[in-house]
Write the structure tokens for this entry.
Amino acid sequence: MPSYNKVILLGNLTRDPALSYTPSQTAICEFGIASNERWTGQDGTKHEEVLFIDCKMFGKRAEVIQKYSLKGDLLHVEGKLKLDTWKDADGNNRAKHWVKIDNFEFMGEPKPKEQAKPEAEDDSDIIPF
């Protein structure tokens, strides 16, 4: 029987995307997305559940995410669920799911980071008296 692995997320970045490169110079952009679900229970109580999902994108488009995204920006991503497994320092088996991003869409005006963060004003010529 065929299987299918596709993840679609819409959420806010939980941190500024981090860019690194493999030894063969393939770009890797790592970031987190927070996705909220809100509902009202039968008794009228409001509930909210927040999921924090780790994501990675590879290649030239990974550089685009890092260049034009900041913590808090809304991003729509599509990809595949992946699983990393390892042994910790105590020899215990550990595992973590993450999403390998295949495609993304900015859900707002993309802006270069140079324009996104305001520059600190130079106040060296101000006389304090």
